[in-house]
Design brief:
By secondary structure, the protein is an alpha/beta fold. The protein folds into 3 domains: 1-58, 2-Layer Sandwich (Alpha-Beta Plaits), CATH 3.30.70; 60-144, GMP Synthetase, Chain A, domain 3, CATH 3.30.300; 170-331, Vaccinia Virus protein VP39 (Rossmann fold). The chain contains 10 helices and 17 strands. It has helices spanning 11-21, 65-69, 75-78, 104-114, 170-179, 195-204, 215-227, 240-243, 265-268, 289-302, and strands spanning 2-7, 31-33, 36-40, 49-52, 86-88, 91-94, 120-128, 133-141, 146-151, 154-159, 185-189, 207-212, 233-237, 250-255, 272-285, 307-319, 322-331. The protein has a 7-stranded mixed sheet. Strands 2-3-1-4 form a 4-stranded antiparallel sheet, covered by helices on one side. A hairpin with a 2-residue loop joins strand 2 (31-33) and strand 3. It is elongated and about 80 Å long. The protein starts with a strand and ends with a strand.
């Protein structure tokens, strides 16, 4: 195929022209040999030496966005690239800095071309509203926000535009799975499209109850129960304050709402059996963890119960020195 041959000392100038013309063939590697770089071309570039060459085809499935963009973007531009991206089913959810806004669709196209697992690329925005729905902008691939995500032995149908879901929490869901004992009765408050519900019910045979106020997420949860052929699950649509008090007692309660979950302890604690374990999730700056531990124990004491902190687990970063934490609490 046609390749642009350029001395190393002129590589940046050539790369800039190739990028401007969108002339680089992303399916092949840029190769270095005896003081020259060889850029595989998908269209003609004037003013440079063009040679016939058999370049090495790229291995697909790059896991780093920066690696995928190398060769199409300048070194300066690559400094603004967020390396990691979230893969939810076949949808890549990426962050793009304002400096690269003008090339956002090109970034999406390159990611689709370089990773066979990616069929859709969406740009992430802020989480908004009571349901913590994420602003999403379509960049490349098929125009949809629905997908089927596989994790921890379950299949999850979801629409990223209509429910909160984080693939980064799969490790945390596995941690909880390993703590659950067979025969436990588990309550998942704010259960969403039922990732915790499905993982626990499918792998441990626990009796799981999920409560979710977002009607779209609740419909997805019902679909996921059917998809995974689960029998030991009950799902409720509505406000946890109205529903949970009538559900009986539980051996374990999950509260995966990182913002303001502690304000629902007055709902969770009364349905805890003796020695029930509560998993309380919160976003906290690392300097405030010890103070919050005392506040949580004090809050539970005001509800007439005692709490022992079994573990404090860091399970995701929100911003510099601010993390998603899970407090594992034993209630007596």
């Amino acid at each position: 195929m046609k390749c642009l041959k350029v001395p190393l000392r002129e590589a940046e100038k050539a790369k800039e022209q190739i990028r401007t013309l969108n002339a680089l063939d992303q399916g092949f590697l840029i190769e270095k040999e005896e003081g020259f770089l060889y850029f595989p071309l998908q269209k003609e570039v004037e003013g440079w030496e063009i040679v016939d060459r058999d370049p090495t085809r790229k291995e697909r499935d790059v896991s780093s966005l920066r690696d995928a963009l190398d060769g199409s973007f300048s070194e300066e531009e690559l400094l603004f690239v967020k390396t990691a991206f979230d893969l939810v089913g076949d949808i890549a959810v990426i962050e793009i800095s304002d400096e690269l806004d003008g090339r956002k669709h090109e970034i999406g196209d390159i990611l689709v071309a370089s990773n066979k697992a990616v069929k859709v690329v969406l740009r992430r925005g802020k989480h908004e509203g009571v349901f913590r729905l994420q602003e999403l902008e379509w960049l490349a691939g098929e125009k949809r926000t629905t997908t089927v995500h596989k994790e921890n032995g379950v299949l999850l149908f979801l629409d990223l535009a209509k429910t909160y879901f984080s693939s980064r929490l799969s490790t945390e869901r596995k941690r909880i799975l390993e703590l659950v004992k067979e025969g436990e009765r588990v309550l998942v408050m704010f259960s969403g499209c039922a990732p915790y519900v499905c993982v626990l019910a499918k792998n441990k045979g626990a009796g799981v109850v999920g409560v979710e106020i977002n009607s779209d997420a609740h419909i997805m949860a019902e679909e996921n129960i059917k998809r995974n052929k689960l029998k030991n699950v009950s799902l409720y649509w509505g406000d946890v304050r109205e529903i949970v008090p009538s559900l009986g007692e539980f051996d374990r309660v999950l509260m995966p709402l990182p913002k303001e979950a502690e304000t629902f302890l007055d709902v969770a604690i009364p349905v805890c059996k003796k020695r029930c374990v509560v998993h309380l999730y919160q976003f906290l700056h690392e300097d405030h963890v010890e103070e919050r531990k005392k506040e949580v124990v004090s809050c539970i004491a005001s509800l007439g119960r005692k709490a022992k902190i079994i573990d404090v687990v860091k399970c995701g970063q929100q911003s510099p020195r601010t993390y998603r934490w899970c407090f594992d609490l034993e209630i007596s």
